[in-house]
Structures are given as structure tokens and as C-alpha cells.
Design brief:
Distance between the termini: 24 Å
Structural class: alpha+beta
CATH topology of the largest domain: Umud Fragment, subunit A
Strand order of the largest sheet: 5-6-11-7-8-9-10
CATH architecture of the largest domain: Ribbon
Strand content: 25-35%
CATH class of the largest domain: Mainly Beta
CATH superfamily of the largest domain: Umud Fragment, subunit A
Order of helices and strands: HHHEEEEHEEEEEEE
Helix content: 10-25%
Oligomer: single chain
Number of strands: 11
Largest sheet: 7 strands, antiparallel
């Protein structure tokens, strides 16, 4: 399950504090340890992590915040066996391994959401209508990255991002389609693409 960088810091602080002291920290100690000025912010992070099933609180005792072991909601859905590598060129010997892979291995601690693709403007990237893109929530992007861009606060599009003076060029990966040019002030980045999922059946 995706968590924000700050939520990861809260979990890491709780784990290290509990390991060192033998009991969980108070809200004040969490705020001090993470240099947070508001106890309400600490409460919000703890509540969100509890809702995600990563923390447990007992309301009838103090210092009651416990980090729960990571679990999967349904067997086989969050983590899949990675049985080896398959050639897409010349055949190679198939050797089964004992590894596994999950979306968490791709996402890490970044805040990520999914979008279903509509249209074929990115087909030369092998992203076509019906695919799902995994998008890291961010307001910035580097030249050439595939981004979710919002134009004039209302029109969202999936394109490659380029700056050209005072303009932004949103470049489709489809030779039959023209790029979109817009004033930099009218374009806001909503996220950048980390990966893609496709369902065949």
C-alpha cells in the first residue's frame, strides 16, 4: 500500500523509538522527533496510517501506538511470485527463482495513484486506450518525462513534457498527432508516470 514520505518517517520513528525504549512514543515525542509543530498533524498521520492497517492504537492506555507487521489484503494480489526472466528476443534458458514482486517494489514510499488511459496519443510508448498508468503525485517534472498535465485548470492530458521559453510543449508519442503548446503559467503538473499496467483477459 502506498504511503507518503512523511508517513514513512512516522513509521520509521515509531519503530526505532519502540526498539530503543521498549515502549511506544507519545504524540509529543513524535512531534519533537520529526520536528512537527502541531500535535494535530501527528494525530492526522497516525490516524491515516491506522486506516491503512499499518498502525494499531489502544484507546484505554497511554503510549499505545504499535506498528503492525506488513500484511497483504488478499493472498497473491499485492505480491506475486517472480519466477525468473523471459526473453523477448532470442530464447534463453528458463530458470525458476524464489523471488517475488509487488507494486510496492515499483512504487516504494512515493504517493502514487492510477489512471485509466483513454485515447492513443501515447501509443508509440506502447501506452494505449484501456491501459492503466501508475502516476507519482508531483508538481514538477524533468524534460522529456511523461506527465499528467492540467491545462487552464480543467483539461488534463498525458504527454511528454518540454519547456520552450515561456511555452510548455506537451508532446504526444503518436506521429499522427500534433503537440500541444500552452503558456507555462497555464500548465500545472499533476504527476509523472512510473509505470503501466495492462489487462489481457
Amino acid at each position: 500500500m502506498a504511503i507518503t514520505r512523511r508517513q514513512k518517517e512516522v513509521i520509521d520513528f515509531l519503530s526505532s523509538f519502540t526498539a530503543k525504549h521498549g515502549y511506544s512514543p507519545s504524540y509529543e515525542e513524535i512531534a519533537a522527533g520529526l520536528q512537527l509543530s502541531s500535535l494535530a498533524t501527528v494525530h492526522k498521520h497516525v490516524t491515516n496510517l491506522q486506516n491503512k492497517g499499518l498502525l494499531q492504537r489502544a484507546h484505554n492506555r497511554s503510549r499505545s501506538i504499535d506498528v503492525l507487521p506488513q500484511r497483504t489484503a488478499k493472498k497473491g494480489f499485492e505480491r506475486l511470485p517472480l519466477l525468473g526472466r523471459i526473453a523477448a528476443g532470442q530464447p534463453v534458458e528458463a530458470i525458476e527463482t524464489a523471488e517475488s514482486i509487488s507494486l510496492g517494489d515499483i512504487i516504494g514510499n512515493r504517493e502514487v495513484y492510477a489512471l485509466e488511459v483513454r485515447g492513443d496519443s501515447m501509443r508509440d510508448e506502447h501506452i494505449v486506450s484501456g491501459d492503466y498508468v501508475l502516476v507519482e503525485r508531483t508538481r514538477t517534472a524533468r524534460e522529456g518525462e511523461i506527465v499528467v498535465a492540467l491545462i487552464d485548470g480543467s483539461d488534463a492530458t498525458l504527454k511528454r513534457f518540454y519547456r520552450e521559453g515561456n511555452l510548455i510543449r506537451l508532446q504526444p508519442s503518436n506521429t499522427e498527432m500534433a503537440p500541444i503548446y500552452a503558456q507555462a503559467s497555464s500548465v500545472s503538473i499533476q504527476g509523472k508516470v512510473l509505470g503501466m499496467l495492462r489487462k489481457y483477459a
